Amino acid sequence: MCGRFVQNSPLQIIQRIFNTDKVLFEVIPNYNVAPTQKILAIINQDNENKLEKLHWGLVPFWANDISMGSRMINARAETVSQKPGFRNAFRKRRCVIPADGFYEWKGEKGDKHPFYITVPSGKPFAFAGLWETWTDKENDEESVYKSCTIITTAASEPLSSIHHRMPAILDPEFYEKWLNEKMQNPKNLEIILRDGLIHDMIYYPVSKLVNSVKNNDPNCIKPFLQ
User: N or C: which end of the chain has fewer CB within 10 A?
Assistant: First the structure.
């Protein structure tokens, strides 16, 4: 599972690493990204990689309302191609979600401690994601709600002692293939989720400040010294 993460890299670095086009909105560092918030995601349309702001929690186009999104923040790699809420987006609307790290909790219920997890290089990386557009047809203005989900997979050995799941983190060599609109064969996409992922991660304990979404500053990722 992935329930909280960090997007704190400046726009210039995101554009360089992910080869995005001109961005027309402000990018604000977020050290405690939570479900339903707007997050940065890269989609490919008209052969251009576009940096968008999408609500975290995918709302299928056929949903009655947007409340469904809060239950669809993650999609399991093992079943994403079959699940009704994800399979259409899996074939046609994939995205990469820039991240600098993510959080996971370990311990007994009522006494869980947060850990910050990132890649050894410290550079931004990308979650494999899906995105969707939902339109409120009952609204005269036909308001559009863009949303996304993060694909998860079995945790790699270094992280399995903390949690049995982790986000599917794409190897940079597979960014373009994952984003390619013309690549719609589920079997080929499943191969990327099997062979095109990064598993080498590092982690350290952080303060329980991160437990509250009200706390959103560099202290969230500061190592916690017991």
Answer: C
pLDDT for res 33? 98
Name the pairing type of β-strands 144-154 and 74-76.
Answer: parallel
Burial of 141 (0-12, 13-18, 19+ CB in 10 A): exposed
- Residues of the chain with confidence (pLDDT) below 50: none
Q: Which residues are catalytic?
A: 2, 104
Q: Quick one: pLDDT at residue 23?
A: 84
User: How many CA atoms lie within 13 Å of 29's alpha carbon, on the beta-carbon side?
Assistant: 16
Residue 140's pLDDT is 56
What dihedral do alpha carbons 156, 213, 15, 42 form, nearest 10°?
70
**Residue 172 dihedral angles phi and psi, to the nearest 5°:** -50, -25
Three-state SS at 186: helix
5-221 is classed CATH 3.40.50.2300: no
pTM: 0.95
Count Cβ atoms within 10 A of the Cβ of residue 212 and give its class: 0-12 exposed, 13-18 middle, 19 or more buried.
Answer: exposed
Assign residue 110 a region (left: φ > 0; alpha: ψ between -120 and 50; beta: otherwise). Answer: left
- pLDDT for 226 equals 64
> Which residues are 130's β-sheet partners?
94, 149
Task: Give the pLDDT of residue 142.
Answer: 64
Q: Pseudo-torsion of CA 136, 67, 57, 101, nearest 10°?
A: 140
Residues 164 and 154: beta-carbon distance below 8 Å: yes
